[in-house]
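Q: Sequence in, structure out?
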Amino acid sequence: MRLNKVVYSCIFLSLFACSNNEVVENVKSSNTAESDGIIEYDLNEDRIDAVQFNNNLSMIQQNVSRQIELLFQSDSIDIQQNYENTLFEIEINLHELKSYEVLNGEGFLTAITGLMNFYKNELTNDFPELIEIIKGGVKNENELERLNEYDLRFAKEEAEYLEIIFQEQDTFAAMNNIKLAS
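A: Exactly. Output:
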């Protein structure tokens, strides 16, 4: 009986030992051939914060730009509601921008904040007059010309702010080793 236990124990141990060697050999072979192209990265918290900062500012700019576009395409029925929604979106984002800070991000943040302030100033100063024209329907050439002049001036000034934003974003990306999508 005792001999049977010894034999069974030896067989069990040899099977167990063989199975472990096979696993180790498989692991070793898979590590060398298939994983040579794997690159290991250390997580850099500053870089992760910079990427998140860039993404947040970009999203703010895109969302407000969409809202502005919707406002400028509004008809007499939707103009007032879209105007109020756009001002609300700008105010929320200006408030949010005040809480942002990241290493080397001051120029980029200032540029986005400048664009938001431009939008706010335009919509609170000159745009209400245009709302009245749009609500009442364009009645003559002078009103149509007023709308077109405003649109061209707005687009020109907005383009200047956007150019500054793109420059500051490129500078920020270079300083934080971020590759921006084209």
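The helical segments are 2-33, 45-72, 79-97, 106-125, 127-136, 141-175.
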